[in-house]
């Protein structure tokens, strides 16, 4: 932990000092006149629970104990998917614990009188055709309605409607996100060259006959030629390959921010390329790379997963320690609603939590000396903004995904886009800001110290830049801060030793499932993480 | 008495006369705009106005003291009532039931007040002139004023100022006269300061109205309509504007022409009869869009049809066509028929929850000029339509102009085919639209031109349909893509094709 600690402390102090001073100035000068009408709150994952874990607050001794055959800790996508798999295999004696008051993890969603909206993950790409498990799940839930000529036919109400994306560049909204309005011939050539490369990589295979890039990424080739790309940053790779077009680099940087919460300099080249070459699904009724989305984002998929698991999920319940004994795993649990501690004795446990949580709750396991500090989590700020009306100038081409070129955020998503009806005048848009200008730890601390009004200072100027005169139309802004928003595929993480170590189970009793064990935070990865853990668990039982 | 008084008062006779006649003309014009039938409107308004003036003259004998005070007070009142009358009438027109009462009351009040003015004036001046001079002077100014008004009203005021501004302007003139008289003779008038304040306040009110009128008229009339706007309302969904020129009514939704009353029958007959006449046993008909009730009017010509459901998003639209007398005359009160059920709902959401079957379905949506309407032309939508169509049923879709927008037209055709419909595209000429296209679709092939049409039909004949089914060389079928929710190609075609023509 000692490395770079001094520098970290210094930078943190500077950043937080700045935010504090700005906060003082704000307090003195009063709330910005222009924002006075805006309602809303600062939200985020349950802070109380987080603090209890982090600060190791002494919790009362367990008052009783109970037995559960299998325990799943964490009801994010990985945990839910593990539960679904157990259920499908005929297991009934299991519980899923969740410390938040809702299941869903990053794919959490809420709604108001205008619309449902996501708080995090909000779409998936159509499934790779060899990903049978995912295709089965989508079929079970009506996302795939049937097959035509062997290709999945996706539910047309879930395929993202047109117009899908637009980019504000040089004062103009253009269709699509790859810059094309007013760029030079040379820029265009580099863009074309890069996408030709991606197309080729999409179908490239390693010596073992597997795809060089794939999703879930553990299905990709072990060929060193490709895996070595994990040892350099995406930016270095691009520079070496001669890409220097500002527009192309902006676009790639945007993509990495959007999917990984980090810039091209902070993710590995393998991860960067996997973004473009990993998805290769084709469909009977959609183009390759088409996306599926819902007003509530991936909250839709969460509800589908939950539908298998209603009686098994316990929310507002926190696991505080996990101890592996000879014949069972002892899990101390704090029920946050009843303010009560008890012990669950489970034969086997799947821990579907991020590793920084595992580090605190796992008591007597060394996990092969895996180094927790190698994992970086990107902090995010997500804001749901309710507008009484949309500014007329930007309405005609209002798309699902709306992105400003060269801005800190990755733009906003319009949650009403998938409504087939005429729609209301009032609209909800979800604004995504990855906090990636500084190293994650510093950005996280800074994010935690910002006040609601200070967030508005970051959000509203960008909205105004995209849509002049939008401020008076803003009814409310709710802000959600994800301190550990998603795992970042840093250099040498995906194919490095630590990820391998972290994934191995403990004594046939404790299994792990989480997207941070795959390295990229995608629904597909969590979905497979859960199934893999459940499968290994069942394997031991047999 | 002051020396200047007679001159000033005679000038005010002139102004009063001009204003009086202007108010009358405004009321007449407005009534014929809003209610139609200008002969009836003008003659009833003029009659009522003159009669009210008579009442005013008769009442004048009950004013005994402080006549100058009363004269100024009435002057201010006339200015206020006359000045605001046209705005009031415009504003209350939407609640049509009470409109006539308000119209005639306003005309009556103005008439009475104007009728009071001249007798009172004559009594003020009676000591200044001999009777014969008095009568000659007063009536000369009165009639010159009337002449002036009747000339400037149609030639200058309406074209340059518009109705609302004109009435505020003359309201201001009226009150200004009151104020000037008051300022010059404040010594001879009781409670002069009260009159001064009253007239200044009224002037400010009217001035504000004059300025605001500019905003209102800019909003409603300068949207590029050639004709006079007689009704305009922004509902939650759209801006409805009704214009009138001569006898012709035109309806615009968001500035797009929906129909022109002189040739809409060509459109609606072509939309309804080629399909409906070919389904002899049709009992249940569904109309989507078409809140004007004109397609329903055509359907009601089939006695066999006993249930018509009209699904239109906008209650503002269907209510207007249920209640406005000019419009119910046009649609023959079709929306009030007991066979008709009006459902104000979004067609896409509504149809998703339906399972009742219909024999004939008319899809008469606005053109696909934006993405939210474009969804209603998608294969997903047509699949839902198919699911509620009875086995031998048929649908018809208004499909924009195959002449101006062939790719759009044939894209609708292709989209219908893609969900398993057998289509029969056709088109006809509607003078105010141009060459217009429709597509019939059924689950079985083999459309046969019907032998008979309802008797009341003005345009359609069997021979006519044969022509409508023929697509000349410049409108031949083109390759076009299927319109889907996730590509919205139709909106793009439509934009390209209509974007390159300027129309309306």
Q: What characterizes the major β-sheet of chain B?
A: 7 strands, mixed
Order of helices and strands of chain B: HHHHHHHEEEEHEHEHHEHEHHEHEEHH
CATH superfamily of the largest domain in chain B: Vaccinia Virus protein VP39
CATH topology of the largest domain in chain B: Rossmann fold
Overall, the morphology of chain B is elongated
Strand content of chain A: 15-25%
CATH-level-2 architecture of the largest domain in chain B: 3-Layer(aba) Sandwich
Give the CATH H-level superfamily of the largest domain in chain A. FAD/NAD(P)-binding domain
Spatial strand order of the main sheet of chain B: 7-6-5-8-9-11-10
Please explain how this structure is put together.
The complex is a heterodimer of chains A (542) and B (504). Chain A is an alpha/beta fold and 542 residues long. Chain A has three domains: 143 residues, Polyamine Oxidase, Chain A, domain 2 (Alpha-Beta Complex), CATH 3.90.660; 189 residues, FAD/NAD(P)-binding domain (3-Layer(bba) Sandwich); 170 residues, Guanine Nucleotide Dissociation Inhibitor, domain 1 (Orthogonal Bundle), CATH 1.10.405.10. Helices cover 33% and strands 22% of the residues of chain A. Chain A contains 16 helices and 21 strands. In chain A, strands 1-20-16-19-18-17-9-10 form an eight-stranded mixed sheet. Chain B is built from 17 helices and eleven strands. In chain B, the strands form two sheets. A seven-stranded mixed sheet of chain B has the order 7-6-5-8-9-11-10, sandwiched between helices. Classes of the chains: A alpha/beta (542), B alpha/beta (504). At the A-B interface, loops of A face helix 12 and helix 14 of B.
